[in-house]
Amino acid sequence: MKPTNESCMPGSCDYWMVSQAAAKLGIQASTLGARHIKDGTLRLQFNREVSYYARGIVNDVSQGNKSAEQGLKELKDEQNSLLSQARDVALRGASVISGALQFAAGAGICYASVGTLCLFAGAPMMLNGANNTYESGRNLFENRSDTVGPLRTGYRAVSGMLGKGNCEADVAYGMVDLSSSAYGIGRMVLKPDAWRLFRYVNTDYVRGYQQAARGGFIFDRLMDSATVKTMYSACHPSNE
């Protein structure tokens, strides 16, 4: 790579690499904008800002204000930042869906058990599902990541009365989420082709994960991973 005080003229190998990296950044911004920004004007503005930023780096490199190595690093950092933001938006959207499914699963348990499992399994799933939907939905629509729903607030209030902090409260909240997930994949459910003469027998049932679609099973595990990450972040906040 050329030192900072040397120009990188068009036609040189370094200039070509920086120009190619800038073009890739523009393509990525266009793709992410089409996927996540519904308003046409805002999407155009976003694409233009990224394009100006990338072109500015190319010009700085060509004029010797930056080395090609510095230019490539800045373009790569911006690319990683865009991908990270896109993942965050996708995760918030997935969390809204997951919360709604969790609520529905809890309601299903209450209904199927005629209330016998509602207190210990169905109701906690419904409460956590509703709270997760609220938190994720507000984070998604307000472009934030720190929404605290009423149920989590209650956990934190109880934790404070016990002389503990938000870390312990959020870990307890997360454990309920993970326990609900484990119960959902481990509980016995009827086979699709099960039939009965007088009553169902043990062979008519299989574990929940055996009936789950592959995509749904992977989705649930991704949400479990997100829950674990949230629990860790509550106890090990970033210093950034």
Strand sequence of the main sheet, in spatial order? Answer: 1-2
Mean pLDDT, as a whole number? 78
Judged by helices, strands and strand pairing, the structural class is mainly alpha
Largest sheet: 2 strands, antiparallel
What this model shows, in words?
- With 240 residues, this protein is mainly α.
- The protein is 73% helix and 2% strand.
- Strands 1-2 form a two-stranded antiparallel sheet.
- Helix 1 runs antiparallel to helix 2, helix 2 runs antiparallel to helix 3 and helix 4 crosses helix 6.
- The longest helix has 45 residues.
- The N terminus is likely disordered.
What key attributes describe this structure?
240 residues; mainly alpha; 2 domains; two-stranded antiparallel sheet; 2 strands; elongated; disordered N terminus
Draw up the topology in text.
Blueprint: H1 13-36, H2 40-62, H3 68-112, H4 118-142, H5 150-161, H6 166-186, E1 188-190, E2 205-207, H7 208-211, H8 214-235
Antiparallel strand pairs: 1-2
Concise description?
The protein has 240 residues and is mainly α. Helices cover 73% and strands 2% of the residues. It starts with 12 loop residues before the first helix and ends in a 5-residue tail after the last helix.
